[in-house]
Write a structure and sequence with these properties.
- The complex is a heterodimer of chains A (148) and B (117).
- By secondary structure, chain A is mostly helical.
- Helices cover 78% and strands 0% of the residues of chain A.
- Chain A has one domain.
- Chain B has one domain.
- Chain B contains six helices and no strands.
- The model of chain B has no long low-confidence stretch (mean pLDDT 90).
- Classes of the chains: A mainly alpha (148), B mainly alpha (117).
C-alpha cells in the first residue's frame, strides 16, 4: 500500500500540480510580457540586424528565453520530471493494467484545479464525467494487485 | 488530418509499453538500488526509443490542437487506455479480471464525455 501511494499517487499529484502551476505561470507571463532583464537582448540583436524582422526575432527569442529561464516554469517542469521518475519505478513494481488507469486521476485533479486555482468555468456536466472516472477507479482498485 | 491523432495515440501507447518493458526486469529495492538500476536503464536501447516516442508525442500534441478543437481531440487519448490494458495482457501476461474491464469502461466513457461540449 505504501509503495502504491509513493510511486503511483505521488507522480499523478506531481504531474497535475506541475501542469496547473505551469499554466498559471504562463498565463501570468503572457499578461506581464517579457521580463525586464531580457530587454538587453533586444538591444544586442539590433546591433547585428536591422529592420522589422530583427525586432520580431528578438522579441520571439526573448519571450522563449524568458519562459525557459523563468524560475516558476523551471520548478513546475522539475516537478513533472520528478513525477516521471517515480512513475518509472511504479511501472517496474506493478502490473501495467492495474496502475495505468489511475493516470485518469490527472483529468479529475486538473479539472477541479482549473476551476479553483485558475478561475476557469467548469460545467456541471463535466462533474458527471468526473464521477464516472472515479467510479471506474474504485472498481479497478478492487482488483487484486501484486507488488514486486 | 486524422493521421495526426492516430500518430498521437500510437506514440503514447508504444512509448509506455517500451518503458514498461525496459523497467520490468529492474528491481528497485531501497536507495542503494537506485543508481545501479539507473545505469542499467540508460544503457537499454528500447528505453531510448521509448523516451524519443514520448517526446514526439508531447511535441505532436500542440500541433494537433492547431487543427482540431480540444473537445474533439482529447477523447482520442482515451483509446490508449484500452490499448495499454490489452498490451498488459498480450505482452506482459497480466490477468485481466472483470474489475479491470468494467473499471476501464467507466473511465473511457468518463474521460471521453469530459471533453464533449
Amino acid at each position: 500500500m505504501r509503495a502504491l501511494l509513493t510511486f503511483v499517487l505521488m507522480p499523478i499529484l506531481c504531474n497535475s500540480f506541475g501542469e496547473l502551476l505551469l499554466k498559471h505561470r504562463l498565463n501570468a507571463l503572457q499578461v506581464g510580457g517579457v521580463p525586464e532583464y531580457l530587454n538587453g537582448l533586444r538591444q544586442v540583436f539590433f546591433v547585428f540586424f536591422d529592420g522589422p524582422l530583427s525586432s520580431y526575432m528578438a522579441y520571439t527569442l526573448s519571450v522563449m528565453l524568458g519562459i525557459l529561464f523563468d524560475p516558476i516554469v523551471m520548478l513546475s517542469v522539475g516537478t513533472i520530471f520528478f513525477g516521471t521518475v517515480l512513475w518509472l519505478i511504479a511501472m517496474s513494481k506493478f502490473e501495467l493494467s492495474y496502475i495505468y488507469p489511475f493516470l485518469s486521476l490527472n483529468y479529475v485533479i486538473i479539472l477541479v484545479g482549473s476551476q479553483l486555482l485558475l478561475g476557469e468555468s467548469v460545467s456541471l456536466l463535466r462533474y458527471g464525467s468526473v464521477l464516472l472516472i472515479v467510479i471506474g477507479l474504485v472498481i479497478i482498485s478492487r482488483s487484486p494487485y501484486f507488488e514486486k | 488530418m486524422p493521421w495526426l491523432l492516430v500518430a498521437i495515440v500510437v506514440t503514447r501507447t508504444v512509448s509506455d509499453v517500451l518503458m514498461k518493458k525496459s523497467v520490468n526486469t529492474l528491481d528497485f529495492d531501497g536507495k542503494a538500488s537506485l543508481w545501479p538500476n539507473t545505469k542499467r536503464l540508460l544503457k537499454k536501447p528500447i528505453f531510448g526509443i521509448g523516451v524519443f516516442l514520448g517526446a514526439l508525442n508531447v511535441m505532436l500534441w500542440p500541433v494537433a490542437l492547431r487543427y482540431f478543437d480540444l473537445s474533439y481531440a482529447y477523447p482520442f487519448l482515451s483509446i490508449s487506455f484500452v490499448l495499454i490494458i490489452l498490451a498488459g495482457k498480450w505482452m506482459f501476461h497480466e490477468k485481466l479480471d472483470v474489475y479491470k474491464w468494467v473499471g476501464i469502461g467507466f473511465i473511457v466513457v468518463g474521460s471521453m464525455s469530459l471533453f464533449f461540449k
